[in-house]
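Re-running Winged helix-turn-helix transcriptional regulator to confirm reproducibility after the cluster update. Everything else is unchanged from the original entry.
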Amino acid sequence: MLYAGILLGTGPTFANNDNFRFAEKVNIALRRTAHHLLISNGDSTSTIEPVKQVDANTFSVQVENVLTYDKLPGVLAQSLQMQHIERGYNVSVRDCGSSKIKLGYNFQELRQPGGVACQGRTQKGSCYVLQISFEPDQANVAGGLSNWWVLPFGTALAGLGFIAWNRSRHKIHVLQVGENPALNAGNKLLFGNSCLDLVGQVLESNKTIHQLTYREAKLLTLFVKHPNQVLERDLILKSVWEDEGVTVGRSVDVFVSRLRKMLSNDPQVKIAAVHGIGYKLEVLS
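Result of re-run:
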């Protein structure tokens, strides 16, 4: 069993190394992008703030004073290409104070004849946060399946899993999605006075538009597909974070707080905390 533990520990280590290298490449690409945006405005002295990692696939960097939005798509695409980053992504430009999205686009717009949205619009000197949200790396998610050499240990692990389950009195219930009118709108989920666009990761809450990160959209989708049901904290972590090897206990509270602010304009929707258990999306009919 000792050998089994050593071998099984190899897969997650490789995955963590890949995640670290990816984050490092994005860090360098965003810093280069911020540098060239400042240079294009004649600023060669301002300090570039550290790149922040919001979650496994979302990164941001603060750009002071002036943002040359017309140059952003090309400079960012070039910076990512230099780091050999080929994942799809969404870009949003947010106000530093309010976090409201001022501008944004999807990488596929670079290939469109008209270019990205909002190009040519003049931006006032201000403080902006440039945020990029990448599509999850499906190769890493599926990578664990390629470790065929762990199969001989499957029976032993299944036995240990049964023993652990049998001793545990706390059960995480698997939720079944029942008949839900929110699931009958194609790529959009309708709830209350709000609408979640699954493809664009855009939330429209009572006519207010919010561009979501990958993780925000995933968490909100989980809530919307199970309206008025109590979701245990462990279930949320497993459904939204653990599938990609990212588990941070406080992440649930932080992301729920963000979603609450975005949904605050919709009086028919509320994310309620259930003490000691988890959260529930309350949707008034």
